[in-house]
Design brief:
Elements (H helix, E strand, L loop, with lengths): L2 H19 L3 E6 L8 E3 L2 H10 L3 E4 L11 H7 L1 H10 L5 E7 L6 H7 L4 E2 L4 E16 L2 E8 L2 E5 L4 E5 L6 E7 L8 E2 L11 H4 L2
Antiparallel strand pairs: 1-2, 1-7, 3-8, 4-10, 5-11, 6-7, 6-8, 6-9, 6-10
Amino acid sequence: MTSKQSIINRSIHKLTIQKRKAMTILRIYDEQNPKSPEAVIEDYADIANALHDMGICFERWPMRELKQGASQEDVLAAYATEIMHFNAEECQFSTADVISLTPEHPDKKALRQKFLSEHQHTEDEVRFFAAGQGLFYLHIDNKVYVILCQAGDLISVPDGAKHWFDMGPEPSFTCIRLFSNPEGWVADFTGDNIAEKFPRFETLVG
């Protein structure tokens, strides 16, 4: 093998790994067995259908090119059309903002810990990942649905649904949040320690 071919092969391998890491994945667990999922789904349509059956909206929006360090106004403007269409089809959210975290954030550990325990909200939690990734855990009936969201994914967790969120030890994401009442986003913790039993970001994502 020539040196040039070796370099090309390494580049292809690197791109394959990056593509694999950027895949949206749904894992479905029995709440009593956090060590082994009953199903692992990687096909987008199958993921959307499985979540839809549980009353969870999951869809993909086209990616828009954003400059590094884009402001909240820039991000919202880039997705203004999608936000308008989503509002028309789902419900009228009166407020949209952008939350962005990087591995350099000084409070990343505390911010991660804040939502690692099972909690609920009094209104739908809608997040669109404009960049990066994050893990949502949805505790519905006797199942736990663990969805690794990637850039381009939108998820809407219904009000009252028990869930938790793991951004990982080195958070890197930019999300658009849609809501009607900011007070509805205050977490109401259930007191259940179920989140402590399930694998976290480091195990599922790396």
